[in-house]
Design a protein that fits this description.
The chain has 344 residues and is of the alpha+beta class. The chain has two domains: 166 residues, Gcn5-related N-acetyltransferase (GNAT) (Aminopeptidase, 3-Layer(aba) Sandwich), CATH 3.40.630; 172 residues, Aminopeptidase. It has nine helices and 16 strands. A hairpin with a 6-residue loop joins β3 and β4.
Length: 344
């Protein structure tokens, strides 16, 4: 077994491995993408390595790290986001060794780029990855939840205020970064540099504002597909009943096995007045239905403003732990930290 840099020739095999590693327990979803390297391309000088079998040339596992420049306790530092760290479930023999070898090889690359620390978001039930991270001295900083809200029911019943929600397809990069810095600049992991114009052009659907409150929508449906592999029995039974009722009432979307789910990610939530949130969400919901989007998702810490309001509306709440490994002498980040949507 040896470790090497991933190449374009690995694309089909890496996509196949991803499709063998669905997320979720009772509700199982598998991510599908045409270009496996799409996440790596979001970063400058990304690290993406694969472990390959000597004899059969099977890819045993893959691991990526994306360099980012962020603030930590007010100081500008360079870190590496761990992403696409997964193993091939069809090659189980000696699997922990392969994962450790990948980890060790990635660490060498990280040192060559002079990164100050490594961090990553790991689903709370991913015991294997958590075990490896802790073995190498990772500290759990906080827990974040991906809150999923259906778009069948109204968030606000005040059409006048909803009509006052402003929408813009584009934003001024400098002004927007200044606004974000005012709202989130004191949080650890706040991005020092604005998002690239190319990234916003590819994925930012637009910004919704009401007064001094706002949020933005990230739309990756053209590049990512979430396909349903399994649903709880209750959902399977309820689906035909709700399907019949949809002719008369607004009901939640319950997909069939094999259906693709369209999702919008909400990010950079700035909440001035608590009641503003629901007026904005209602306008987003209307736009989602116009674009055949089934669910709205946002990543939050329980201390974030607006968390309680959104958590009450969420049907699914997936918890991820943020792990931090300092390479140089750095303080542990304080929660809540800033989550950048480009990490998705």
């Amino acid at each position: 077994m040896y470790v090497r840099a991933a190449t374009a020739e690995d694309n089909a095999r890496l996509i196949a491995i991803e499709q063998l590693t669905p997320q979720g327990d009772q509700i199982k979803l598998v991510s599908e993408r045409q270009d496996y390297f799409i996440r790596a391309k979001k970063f400058k000088d990304p690290i993406l390595l694969v472990a390959e079998d000597d004899s059969r040339r099977d890819i045993l596992g893959v691991m990526g790290v994306g360099p980012v420049t962020v603030r930590l306790r007010g100081e500008v530092v360079r870190g590496g986001l761990i992403f696409d760290w997964r193993s091939n479930p069809l090659t189980q023999t000696g699997l922990p060794r392969h994962m450790l070898r990948l980890w060790q090889a990635v660490q060498k690359e990280i040192k060559s780029q002079e990164l100050d620390f490594i961090f990553g978001y790991v689903k709370e039930d991913n015991e294997r990855s958590v075990g490896i991270l802790r073995k190498y001295g990772a500290k759990q900083v906080e827990s974040k939840e991906f809150l999923t809200m259906p778009v069948h029911a109204r968030f606000s019943k005040d059409p006048i205020r909803v009509s006052k929600v402003e929408f813009g397809k584009a934003v001024d990069a400098v002004q927007e970064h200044t606004l974000l810095k005012r709202s989130f600049g004191n949080q650890d992991f706040f991005l020092e540099m604005p998002r690239s114009a190319q990234m916003k052009e590819l994925y930012m659907f637009g910004k919704f504002s009401y007064g001094n409150s706002s949020l933005k929508v990230w739309d990756t449906n053209a590049d990512y597909t979430q396909r349903v592999l399994n649903m709880p029995l209750l959902y399977k039974v309820a689906r035909p009943i709700l399907g019949a009722g949809s002719k008369f009432l607004s009901v939640p979307h319950i997909p069939n096995i094999g259906d693709a789910i369209r999702v919008w990610q909400l990010y950079d939530l700035i909440i001035d007045q608590p009641e503003d949130l629901f007026h904005i969400l209602e306008r987003v919901r209307q736009a989602a239905r116009e674009n055949n989007v089934h669910y709205l998702v946002t990543c939050m810490n329980a201390k974030d403003r607006g968390y309680g309001q959104i958590a009450k509306k969420a049907w699914v709440r997936l918890k991820y732990h943020l792990f931090f490994i300092p390479i140089n002498d750095l303080p542990i980040p304080e929660a809540p930290t800033y989550f950048d949507v480009t990490y998705l």
